C-alpha cells in the first residue's frame, strides 16, 4: 500500500508517537522485505508488553504498509480515543457475536480491500514466565483461511524490557533495543479447501505460532520451551490442585482441629495445631500451679 493511502489521522498519530519511541528505544529491525508491497495480508505478532503495539506499529509504519489492529468495539465510542481508532482505520471486533467468523468480518473485509491486519494471536500479554509466545487463538487462522491471504510471522523483543508484562513501573535506563524480525509468509496451502473445523483451525494456528516462536528464538539466541504455555491448561491444572487440596482438608477433618468451648481439643481430636497444643499445655500448667498454691495455703492454715 503506497504511503499516500496512510491517511491524515495515521500520520498525525505517528507525529505524536514516533519521537518518544525514537528517544526511548534503539532499533534492530529485520525482514522488512517480507512485508508485501501490495495486496491484503495478515501479520501475526507476539505480545509481551503494553507498549509493544506502539513499537511494532513504528516498525511497520516505516515499511509503508501501516497495520490495522483489532480492538474491542467499545473503544470506538470513547471520545478522542474512539475518534483516533476510527480515523486510523483500526478494526472493531464485536465479541458479543455468536458466530465466530462474523466476529472477524471487518478484518476479512479489510484484507479483501488490500489492507494489512495485525493480529496478536495470543489474545493478551503472554503469561509465559520467560516471555515466550503462548498458544494462539484461532482468529488469525480463520481470516487467513477465509481470504487465502499471506500471513507474515513477526517476532519482537525489547519493549518488554522497558515495560515488562504486568509491571507497574517502566525501566527507562539504560536505553533498550527494540528487535523485530518479520519472516516470509507461513505456508498454509495444506489447509485450503478443507472444512474449517476446530481441529483444522487449531492446527493452522499452531503452524503460525511456531513460525513466530522460531523467529523469536533467532532474536533472543535462545531455545523456546518444547510445549508452549497454555493458559487454559494452566487454569484446569490450578482448579485440579485446588480440588485436591480441598479433598485433603476434608479427609483430615477440619472439625478435629477446632478447639472446644473449654479451650481443650474437641472430642476425637488427634493433636490439633502446635499453637493450640501449646496454649492448652500452658493452661494446664497454670491450673497445676494454682492448685499447688491453694494446697500450701490450706496446710498453713491447718498448722
UniProtKB/TrEMBL annotation:
**Residue runs in coiled coils:** none
- Keyword Acyltransferase set for record: yes
Q: Supply the SUPFAM superfamilies for this chain.
A: Glycerol-3-phosphate (1)-acyltransferase
- What's in the keyword line of the UniProt record? Acyltransferase, Transferase
Q: Which Pfam families match?
A: Acyltransferase
- Whether Acyltransferase counts among this entry's keywords is yes
Q: Where is the composition biased (Basic residues)?
A: 240-250
Domain Phospholipid/glycerol acyltransferase, first and last residues per copy: 41-159
**Region (Disordered) location:** 222-303
Question: According to the UniProt entry, which residue ranges have a biased composition of type Basic and acidic residues?
Answer: 222-239, 276-286
InterPro entries annotated for this entry? Answer: Plipid/glycerol_acylTrfase (IPR002123)
What SMART domains does the record tag this protein with? PlsC
Entry's Gene Ontology molecular function annotations: acyltransferase activity
- Entry superkingdom: Bacteria
Question: What is this protein identified as?
Answer: 1-acyl-sn-glycerol-3-phosphate acyltransferase
